[in-house]
Amino acid sequence: MQPNRKIRLALICPQKDAYSETFIRFHRTRIDAEVFLLYEGLLPRRSEEGPLLASSLPARAFRKIFSLLFPRLLNIHERKLVKFLKARKVDVVLAEFGMTGASLMGVAKKTGLPLFVHFHGLDAYKFDILRDYGARYREMFGLATRIFVVSEHMRRQLLTLGCDPERLVLNHYGPGEFFFDVVNRYRPGCFVSVGRFVEKKAPSLTIEAFGKIRERFPDAILTMVGDGPLLEQCRGRVRELQMEDHVVFAGVLSPAALLPLFEEAIAFVQHSRVAPDGDSEGTPVAVLEAGAGGLPVVATRHAGIPDVVIDGLTGFLVEEGDVEAMAIAMGALADDPSLARQMGTAARKRIREHFTLERHIQEINKYITLR
Question: What residues does the Glycosyl transferase family domain cover (predicted)?
Answer without folding.
Answer: 189-350
